[in-house]
Amino acid sequence: MDLPFNPLAADAARIAVAAALVGCEPRDLIDEARLICSELATNALQSGSPPVVLTVDWVTPPQGGLDVEITVTDGGRGQARPPEHRSHAPLPANYAEHGRGLFLVEALAAAWSLDLGANASRAWCLLRTNYDSSQAHATAISGRA
User: Fold this and answer.
1) In terms of Cα–Cα distance, which of 124, 110, 107 is closest to 44?
2) Of 12, 32, 100, 119, which has the maximum CB count within 10 A?
3) Distance between CA atoms of 125 and 111, rounded to whole angstroms?
């Protein structure tokens, strides 16, 4: 889904991920996915350039549980610096008003990465929950938004 490049991007991301995960369980994972999409969309708006695109993929593995992959891409930083890759959130100053979004992603996601480039940036994460297949997802199903 293309997200607006304006302050409505976070709201649009939350709505889109909730729609993509309709019927999925557990509900806590969907709430975490909404929070992460909001953070990643906000980061793209603040640090990137248009277009901003959200992709949500999910699958219930045969062993049970739910895996949700979230990717937000944008048009990059527009700067002639070399690309950088992160898989650990930088530590913001105690008094900083911003800079904690990636800490949330790191705390909630099973894995994540951030690739920042001059012409494209990509934030990706995997949310994973494991539970017995006798619970809500007795059979494997998958979806894509």
Assistant:
1) 124
2) 32
3) 6
Q: How far apart are CA 24 and CA 65, in angstroms?
A: 10
Beta-sheet pairing, 52-59 with 66-74: antiparallel
8 Å CB contact between 21 and 30: yes
Handedness of CA 74, 80, 81, 84 (dihedral sign): positive
Whether 17 and 69 have beta carbons less than 8 Å apart is answered as no
Give the separation between CA 4 and CA 13, rounded to whole angstroms: 9
Cβ–Cβ contacts within 10 Å for residue 38, how many? Answer: 19
Q: Please identify which residue in the block is written with the tokens 């996915």.
A: 33
Tell me the pLDDT of the chain (145 aa) as tens digits.
999 999 999 999 999 999 999 988 888 889 999 999 999 999 999 989 999 999 999 998 888 888 999 999 999 987 655 555 555 555 555 554 455 678 888 889 999 998 888 889 999 999 998 755 444 333 334 444 4
Q: Which residue carries 């979004």 as its tokens?
A: 101
